[in-house]
Amino acid sequence: MVEELISSDGTTPRRIADAYVQALAELDPLTAVYLGLNPDDDRLPDLSPAGAQAIADLARRTLARLAEAEAAGAAEDEAERRCARLLRERLTAELAVHDAGEGYRAVRNLGSPVHNVRDVFTLMATGTEHEWEVVGRRLARVPAALAQYRETLAEGVERGLLSGPRQVVTVVGQLGEWLAQDAPEEGAPAGHGAGWFGDFVQDAPESLRPALTGHAVAAAEALAQLRDWLRDVYGPAAADAPDTTGRERYGRWVRYWTGADLDLDEAYAWAWQEFHDLYAQMRAEAEKVRPGATPMEAMKWLETDGPAIEGAEAAREYLQGLMDQAINDLQGTHFDLAEPVTRVESMIAPAGSAAAPYYTAPSLDFTRPGRTWLPTIGRDSFPVWDLVSTWYHEGVPGHHLQLAQWNYVADQLSTYQVSTGGVSANLEGWALYAERLMDELGYLTDPGHRLGYLNAQMMRALRVIVDIGMHAGLDFPADSPYKAGRPVLPDDAREFFGLYCGLSTDFLDSELVRYLGMPGQAIGYKLGERAWLRGRAAAKAAHEARGEVFDLKAWHMAALSQGSLGLDDLVAELAAL
Fold first, then answer.
1. Which end of the chain, C or N, has fewer beta carbons within 10 A?
2. pTM score, two decimals?
């Protein structure tokens, strides 16, 4: 397909990379939705083994074309070399995961194919009748997509490639939440009882609502069938499957999520140093919140008796105001933001989402803005102590500024470098750096807010410890305050996490399942932040060695305009800015 999109004459890595994005958007319509491409495409991706193989074949053809272009001298300037390096590393890492059969066990509580099928509807345009017609046609395809997903998982059962039982139980529960509805009240609109899909189509134009409701009911029925199959067939087959990966599988996933072959033992030891340093800071801050209180006691007080916002809509408005203020304060002082980048929306996440807040990037043309999403997980009261730092991470100056700026400079790089070539550890590292930046700039002087920030930092250090510890089969070290010398097993990891992270039980339970289902992803936050900080320090030292004043605003904009990089390359590239 790459060959069909570009000619062989004058091909460069950036043109090959962009042709890959176009071809991928044809094979995977969800990618097109995320990027704002092909707005009239009403398909869902082929979630069968054949669909995954088609994407893998595209990656192999793209790598072959890239090798030809490099051999012909088409990657001689730095911009082309940087894009070629990223494209090769990303596609190679993705193929390693595919070839190991990981797609056959894609049952997890976040970012799985079934989650993506639902989430795509939250990103589709619904402002006109025509757009709702496209939604309706795509909604009609949900049963077929879920059947293909089930086909893939059934093949995994045959091959002995199964997800761990914790993932199965959690996803079955999530699907139940998507389907759950109160008993219809008298006069309730048609479609009530079709779960999330039924609720979603209630905003459609009245003339289209009957057809859309029929599609929603069919989608909900297919979802219920998938839930029952996971519970009654897949679950028993996966009962003895390990929840952890082992070091070999884990290494593949670490490369996929970080763009680096990390020294896991070094990273594990470094995270323990961070743990001890952060806990000392948390003790000092807890004393300011509640004299004589431990960090956990202070955070519990903040959670139950501290300032809180009542109601989901009020919480959404509060978080929107927080991001608006950050943009207003940072614009012109620490960032130079183009007008499209300054637009970001605060949203409430759909019911049945994982417990962690998240962000979705704007479309390439900015017709869909960047959005932060707050899961309510059954709550109606939202303590603010841990929300402030979190929204600096998810919104401004975190994910939103990086990903929106990438879109803004896409024509100077390549679409690939600012979209599908993204490296999780780079993105999450910047967002955690953004939290630290706001602390450095004095935005977290309130003791509760700063304890929330330190708790967020502690959570990311704990992620490195428990994620590497569980999957690589390590022990709690001699200086651990918890079970020193004992193996890091999932149940112990969850207990240890709860002793030193002041977030809710539901959140921490969801987090443990997330780490087991997305091995290697969680370590990218803290290790990515380490790379960003090392790159900034090296750039500052280089400027000062030349007798120059280090301009942090200029560095921020240059750093946010270079597109995606893996951790193998990030520090050196940041140091050179």
1. N
2. 0.94
